[in-house]
Amino acid sequence: MSTTADEYKFTTLSVNSPKPYVLHIQLDREEKHNTMNHAMWKDMTDCFSKASDDENVRSIVLSGKGRLFTAGLDLMEAAQNFSSSPDQDVARRGFKMAKYIGLAQESCSAIERCMKPVVVAIHGACIGGGMDVITACDIRLCAENAYFSIKEVDVGLAADMGTLQRLPKIIGNDSLVRELSYTARKIGSNEALSCGLVSKVYKDDKELMENALQLAAFIATKSPVAVQSTKVNLNYARNHSIPEGLEFMKSWNATMLQTEDIMKSAGAFMQKKTPADVEFSKL
Ligand SMILES: CC/C=C\C=C\CC(=O)SCCNC(=O)CCNC(=O)[C@H](O)C(C)(C)COP(=O)(O)OP(=O)(O)OC[C@H]1O[C@@H](n2cnc3c(N)ncnc32)[C@H](O)[C@@H]1OP(=O)(O)O
């Protein structure tokens, strides 16, 4: 094992390193359908921030333990939080809620900010908060049995951890985003593939996990300078104009084109080898 997965101890996540430089993070509240609560949001933020800085991690797979990916917000715990301190001044309650929402949002933003690409493998239900999580990931794969729902309207709220901000940029179909967000309609794996929410559907959970890990392992064989630079620039490009993106890229690569990884990768090509044959320095 090239990563120090045993340093990743969390109460709501299981973490291991099944392949060199690959970290596998699993949502692990199986007995509660991997519902998301305060502890899980905090664990996710800490875990993805740690992996971002971990030179033994080059790519990440995220999945859910048990029979589904996640049932979204833990409604029991949320009900307690939403109704706490009813006698307190509304503004003071507002400040408290903003802090709570911010903490939840951070769990998804930490995935997006993480320098290492995150491949998410979705099986069974992906509901509510689950959509916020997967839309912050780099690559979405699912099993045939997967279904997706922006369920928030059915529990009386607007999605607030990133789905409404990220999904339009992922599927590029504003009409469909609005329909799904206003109705909470479930879409199956085939529709998810045809609208561009996922890039591949596998016949069952086993095939999904094998392929997700294989993809992450393949990404991990490439130059970490090249892969991480690509993620940073794709994220930047998504939120800026093309001229701004090109300007950012120019400054970024003014340094990065001086990396030893280019000589190593090109050298491998000349010798009829691949990046997998190259030993890249840690990053
Ligand atoms: C700051 C805010 C941040 C984030 C906000 C996110 C918003 C959301 O995520 S909104 C979406 C919330 N989730 C749901 O509405 C899902 C509700 N659950 C279901 O639809 C189903 O339970 C299921 C996940 C599809 C599973 O169905 P099934 O296999 O038929 O099991 P059930 O009998 O329905 O459930 C078993 C058991 O689990 C409890 N449960 C299910 N989901 C939740 C949940 N989200 N929170 C809390 N508890 C949940 C369910 O009540 C059952 O409990 P019993 O005690 O066994 O009755």
Automatic annotation (TrEMBL):
Domain of life from the UniProt record: Eukaryota
Isomerase among keywords: yes
CDD domains membership: crotonase-like
Pathway per the UniProt entry: Lipid metabolism; fatty acid beta-oxidation
SUPFAM superfamilies assigned: ClpP/crotonase
Record bears the keyword Hydrolase: no
Organism: Clavelina lepadiformis (Light-bulb sea squirt)
Name of this protein: Delta(3,5)-Delta(2,4)-dienoyl-CoA isomerase, mitochondrial
UniProt xrefs under InterPro entries: ClpP/crotonase-like_dom_sf, Ech1-like, Enoyl-CoA_hydra/iso, Enoyl-CoA_hydra_C
Keywords: Fatty acid metabolism, Isomerase, Lipid metabolism
Similarity field: Belongs to the enoyl-CoA hydratase/isomerase family.
